[in-house]
């Protein structure tokens, strides 16, 4: 028996669902909202993605691979923690205020994703610890405290964007946050 061809583009629907969860959050987004947004009936949506929780999980993964990937890229590509954090904050100002999509960050605005937020903070902390260990940052630098500060700054920028802050205002936040970064070891 040959399976019936789906009547929709799965990637397009997943992007629409990602934006719905990003805009309204997991709790406030019902399956009825998702079917209205995508035009896909509930049985087809369930057949393609599973239940609402499975759909949310897939939407978060898509977000991390697309809209939110700038953070991991900065940590991977930049040679120092300071350069990575500068890039994260600068790109966050742009990403969180891009027209025609929800403002802020899906991962930072969803209460259900505290584990992912902790992983992101830990990745920044590891980068800072590396810089301390290699002498790029002073030996007394408190990597945990600095990583928590960075996490609070990024989360604050997301919240400000959701509340209507401009890109210029978020760039100002980024510059101010970077002004407290420890001076590199000469």
Write up what this structure looks like:
This protein has ten helices and no strands. The chain is elongated, with a radius of gyration of 19 Å. It starts with 9 loop residues before the first helix and ends in an 8-residue tail after the last helix. The longest helix has 20 residues, at 114-133. The model is unreliable at 1-5 (pLDDT under 50). Helix 6 (81-95) packs antiparallel against helix 8, helix 6 (81-95) packs parallel to helix 9 and helix 8 (114-133) packs across helix 9. The protein is mostly helical and 186 residues long. 31% of the residues are buried.
* Poorly predicted residue ranges: 1-5
Query: What is the residue-mean pLDDT, rounded to a whole number?
Result: 95
Order of helices and strands: HHHHHHHHHH
Termini separation comes to 70 Å
Strand portion:
under 5%
């Amino acid at each position: 028996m040959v399976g019936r061809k789906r009547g929709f583009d799965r990637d397009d629907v997943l992007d629409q669902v990602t934006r719905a969860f990003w805009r309204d959050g997991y709790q406030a987004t019902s399956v009825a909202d998702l079917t209205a947004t995508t035009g896909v009936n509930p049985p087809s949506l369930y057949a393609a993605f599973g239940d609402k929780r499975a759909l949310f999980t897939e939407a978060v993964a898509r977000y991390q691979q697309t809209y939110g990937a700038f953070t991991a890229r900065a940590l991977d590509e930049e040679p120092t923690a300071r350069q990575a954090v500068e890039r994260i904050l600068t790109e966050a100002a742009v990403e969180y205020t891009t027209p025609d999509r929800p403002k802020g960050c899906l991962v930072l605005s969803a209460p259900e994703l505290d584990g992912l937020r902790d992983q992101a903070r830990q990745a920044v902390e590891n980068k800072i610890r590396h810089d301390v260990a290699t002498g790029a940052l002073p030996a007394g630098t408190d990597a945990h405290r600095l990583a928590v500060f960075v996490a609070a700054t990024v989360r604050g920028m997301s919240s400000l964007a959701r509340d209507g802050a401009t890109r210029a205002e978020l760039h100002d936040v980024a510059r101010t946050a970077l002004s407290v970064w420890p001076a590199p070891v000469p």
